[in-house]
Amino acid sequence: MISLIRSFTTTMAALAMVPLLSPQSLAAQDFDHSHAAFTKLLDKHVDTGRVDYPDFKKDVNRLGAYIESLADVSKAEFDKWNRDRQMAFLINLYNAATIKLVLDHYPVESIKDIGGLFSGPFDKKVVPLFGEKVSLDHVEHDILRPKYEDPRIHFAVNCASLGCPKLRDEAYQAKKLDKQLEEQGRIFMHNRGKNRVDAEEGTLYLSPIFDWFEEDFVDHSGSVEKFVAPYFPEKDAKRIRRGGLDIEYTHYSWKLNES
Length: 259
Known about the structure:
Layout: H1 2-16, H2 23-29, H3 36-45, E1 46-47, E2 50-51, H4 53-56, H5 60-71, H6 75-80, H7 83-105, E3 125-129, E4 132-135, H8 136-148, H9 153-156, H10 177-189, E5 196-198, E6 203-206, H11 209-212, H12 214-221, H13 224-228, H14 234-242, E7 246-249
Parallel strand pairs: 6-7
Antiparallel strand pairs: 1-2, 3-4, 5-6
């Protein structure tokens, strides 16, 4: 009996040393890094970059639940993840929150129609992150761009507009993030309405994204031309690398990316 009591006491003492996890910590440990819930919604409501907002509105609660699952992740847990998991998390959060913002105000002709006199859609604090509400601009310009220094982020974050690179019909995942970003780049750069080489004119036409965020591409590759060249067909890439092309920026449409 004494032996049994000692064994029981030892076991209870050992259990007392195990730290108790809060519901938030448990949720973070169980976090689905495949972002399957978001992929299911995107696959259902996005077709070649266009969003069926009226139909998506029927699933707005599911989208909200997905965003809440991201909001449950603490900063301490996030900091334990590797770089690709962090980037995928933030890109998906940005895209999901943007869709939710549009759905909450739909119908609109442009995301730019959302907001008041002193606040536009991208500086509204509507994104739940690490226990507070932040803006889309904060996620993109204060975290994603300066922390990860990967210009391909501009191919992935979607501003719900036709001028933006197409919204992908699947969530970003750490295990295939590099492949996804590269594919997004090729799709965007092969859109001749946004990016093309006119050899006869001696002009490289590019999306205004390469003007607005020029420093990101220059810091990464030395110049905008060096960054974009690999994404063009080989004939155009060779012409860009030869140099001497004038750069002109194409029209950027803020019209809603709806189907």
